[in-house]
Amino acid sequence: MIPSSSREKAFLCARALLDRKATDLVILEVKALSSFTDYFLICSGNSDRQVQAIASHIEEKLGKEGIHPLGIEGRREGRWVLLDYGDVVVHIFFHPVREFYDLERLWSEATRVELPAPPKARPKRSG
Q1: Range(s) of the domain holding residue 52
Q2: 25-46 core/surface letters (b: 16 or more CB in 10 A; e: else)
Q3: CA separation for the pair 25, 90 (Å, rounded)
Q4: What are the pLDDT digits (tens) for 37-72?
Q5: Which of 4, 17, 1, 7 is nearest to 92 (CA)?
Q6: Where residue 56 sits, what CATH number does that domain have?
Q7: What does DSSP assign to residue 12?
Q8: Is 98 inside a domain boundary?
Q9: List of residues 6+ apart from 13 with CB closer than 8 A
Q10: pTM for this one?
Q11: How many domains, the chain?
């Protein structure tokens, strides 16, 4: 099911990131500060291979929903992978690289958004 809003797309991306054990996930709503996107997702991986795996997983998972990136940067190196989904931009960092660039500080005026808990499955009624 294709998300109906950029916020829903950001949450779909966030859950895909967490599927592959991305750490220190931050969702920033930047639409009031940016003319090119609505949300930044920033997370870390513990190695370049994990960063690459996280990026591949999010691309695959969103692709199954019919959502494809407009561009991908940095996948080969695995130090900082950027996936541009238009209204949502995902930054996956190898942890030391994230500390160096410190995007959260650069976008400190952005609103931090909490990822809601996934909906619980309804219990089946016996009949």
Answers
A1: 6-111
A2: ebbbbbbeeeeebbbbbbbbbe
A3: 10
A4: 999 999 999 999 999 999 999 999 999 999 999 999
A5: 17
A6: 3.30.460.10
A7: H
A8: yes
A9: 41, 58, 62, 85, 88, 90
A10: 0.87
A11: 1
Sheet with 23-29: strands ordered across: 71-73, 80-84, 88-94, 39-45, 23-29, 111-113
On whether residue 71 sits in a domain, the answer given is yes
> Where is 103: in which H helix or E strand?
helix 103-106
Q: Give 85-98 pLDDT, tens digit per residue.
A: 999 999 999 999 99
The sign of the CA dihedral 10, 15, 17, 18 is positive
Mean pLDDT of 68-78: 94
Here the tokens at position 41 are 């997702």
Residue 124 lies in a domain: no
User: Residues, the chain, total?
Assistant: 127
